[in-house]
Amino acid sequence: MIAHVPMSAPEILREDIEAVTFVLRSGTLSLGPATEAFERAVADYVGVKHAVAVNSGTSGLHLCVRAAGLGDGDEVITSPFSFVASANCMLYERAVPVFADIEEETLGLDPECVAAAITPRTRGVLPVHVFGQPVALDQHLAICRQHGLVMIEDACEALGAEYHGKRVGGFGHSACFSFYPNKQITTGEGAVVVTGDDATAAALRSMRNQGRGAMGAWLEHEVLGFNYRMTEMSAALGLSQLRRIDTVLARRSEAAARYSAALARLDGIKLIEPAASTTRLSWFAAIARLDPAVDRDRVILALAERGIPARAYFSPLHLQPLYRERFGFTGGEFPVTERVARSTIALPFFTAISDEQIDRVFAALREILACA
Ligand SMILES: *Cc1c(COP(=O)(O)O)cnc(C)c1O
User: Fold this and answer.
1) For residue range 210-258, what is the model confidence (pLDDT) as tens digits?
2) Whose CA is nearest to atom 7 of ligand 1?
3) Number of other residues whose CB lies within 10 A of the CB of residue 253
4) How many CB atoms lie within 10 A of CB 200?
5) In the structure, which protein residues have their CB atom closer than 6 angstroms to any atom of ligand 1?
6) Cα–Cα distance between 315 and 111 in angstroms, integer?
């Protein structure tokens, strides 16, 4: 029997279960005190004035795009090295996601590629802080200022990440943090959108709640809205998890350091590391880069044979069937993204991963890479 190491696992402690149970007994399951408290706590943690809880990161990004007034034919420059929601959120509003290539250091949007992709129809930039690593924010902000573009941060993987000492999420028009079960902390399904702007916050609140006004009657709908509300159970879970965010991020950092030291003893593989501008990488996943000579897919198969799950992460967005079909991409358009995507591997990683589990992944990799 081969012992199994999970790819990812939420950390649910007794205090989390008690917090959710408390809500269930209270009788208020939506739009109540837990949601308000969770929103306040996220706003304070990120250091942004307003936070609006929603039912997923995908919903949150959609609302950011709408609240920024991006629509029909507006071009928004974004990264092809991401999860599909960061580009789909433009399609929902008939805006056009325009991909620009990434840089090796942060694996996020390359400012020079963004500048080169600007046209008279460009209205926004949506950088993604992939794997908890902040993008080159100063450069992106300068470009946005120069061309009058809005910036929306996809911070879904980056709660607690710091760029030159400042937490991500407060740099642009708005930002979204996801709390899906594989993220640093979870609400089951759920996310929080943050913004420093009062009117944007009011619009986000109204749109997530069927377009209702702040003071209006329950059956009065002022604008086109959605049902993107977070449940009270989710908010209570999120608040309970956020209370121990420092411990969670420290533990994930330790696990990453153990992986990094172990992989440094092997040829052909290396864990990603903080960029020069990253004062805190918020470890979302254990992402390693393989030498071009190593067959990544063979490594994934060989790990699976040893009971260890691993993933090719990400598969570039422009090469997804939906984007190939809509925009005619065939490959070769974004060479850095394509090269990085071919060489990355996500190893098992979660807050409660034990040293012994990491050592088992290492032992398997040592065996596999020795005969690669
Ligand atoms: C998780 C994630 C999302 C979407 O979040 P959901 O809560 O799963 O809808 C968006 N962008 C990135 C980069 C993500 O990792």
Assistant:
1) 999 988 888 889 999 999 999 999 999 999 999 999 999 999 999 999 9
2) 57
3) 14
4) 22
5) 56-58, 82-83, 85-86, 128, 154, 156-157, 178, 180, 191
6) 21
Task: Measure 18 CA to ligand 1 centroid, in angstroms.
Answer: 27
Contact call for residues 313 and 82 (beta carbons, < 8 A):
no
Q: How far is the CA of 218 from the centre of ligand 1 (A)?
A: 30
Question: Cα(89)–Cα(66) distance, rounded to whole angstroms?
Answer: 9
Please report, as a single letter, which amino acid is at residue 188. Answer: G
- The token pair at 145 is 């200022």
Atom of ligand 1 nearest to the CA of 58: 9
Q: Please identify every residue annotated as catalytic.
A: 183
CA of 255 to the centre of ligand 1 (A): 23
Tell me the pLDDT tens digit for each residue of 318-354: 999 999 999 999 999 999 999 999 999 999 999 999 9
Nearest-5° Cα angle at 27, 26 to 29: 105
How many helices (H) and strands (E) the chain has is answered by 13, 13
Pairwise CA distance, residues 10 & 352, whole Å: 8
> What are the residues whose beta carbons fall under 8 Å from the beta carbon of 102, sequence distance 6 or more?
79, 80, 81, 108, 109, 110, 113, 334, 336, 337, 340
Residue type, 211: G
